[in-house]
Amino acid sequence: MMKEENFIIRVVEMHYKQGLSQQQISEKLNISRTTVSRALTKAKDIGIIEIKINYPVGTGNDLEAQLEKKYGLKEVIIAYSNQEDRLADEIAKNASDFLVRQIKNPMKIALTRGSTMQQMTEALAQNPRIKFLETDQVVILPSEGSTNISLTFPKKKRMMYSNFIVEEVARILDANSYNFLCPLYVSKKTREALLEEPSIMDLINQLQQADLSMMGIGNLESDSTLIQSGYVSKETFQELKNQGGQAEFMSHVIDKYGQLVSQDYDSQIMSLSLDDLVKIPIRAGVAYGKQKHEAIRAVLAGKYINVLITDAQTARYLLGE
Question: Where is the HTH cro/C1-type domain (predicted)?
């Protein structure tokens, strides 16, 4: 064992102290490059090598680390763009990269509706890494029901509902999918009846077993998907705002403290419950822009997400800069 450790230490010193490449080490020691690579890998595994990165203050990595520490997050990903109109594309690419990185076989993934999730889906279709994935036991699930959107809306907006996004992601990944076959917003009595339906019960059970949830985060302004798409009436929307609504995700509406603003409203939406959501191991929120600042902070206050994909301006706001 000591002889092997001595060999590993020698390889490590040649590579990291002397600056020799793996090929140069293999030639000098008359061993294969594969042996060199394995020695360096084992050095990391047994603790001979420890990697520490000292990020310069003010860099994106520094902001990510600060946010992770402040809010107890597993991971923060910050997207950058020199052009403001390209930021949405960068957010979408980062979100799709995160999704691809998380995928394991088997796995259950829950997705929500919204423009940001739709853009992520479009970016996913262009992601070159998907061809290397094994996905025959990956299941894509909608976190909420879907209400038909009026034909008067642009086609792209009509494609933002969760069932369509789930079907598209499953098609792109060559994975499996379920549909949430019911309206999003119903009466209490109807909701109680729907939750007794075998197909709905099966879907909820699948969602409760999800390994990953990815969700957009909305605000309660006039351009909110919740009102623009006609999911709820203008009267209901205004009432939610008057009760202190700051954020909307998976159709749940919370205040700045992360608490539901209306149990009455929440008892009428067909969506995974917040109690079930927080049991999912990885919960990624994808949102950006000044108009989403308060909404994102409210979701973080409720600890509903443990991964955040956002922009630098939002990151600085959340850090109080």
Answer: 17-38
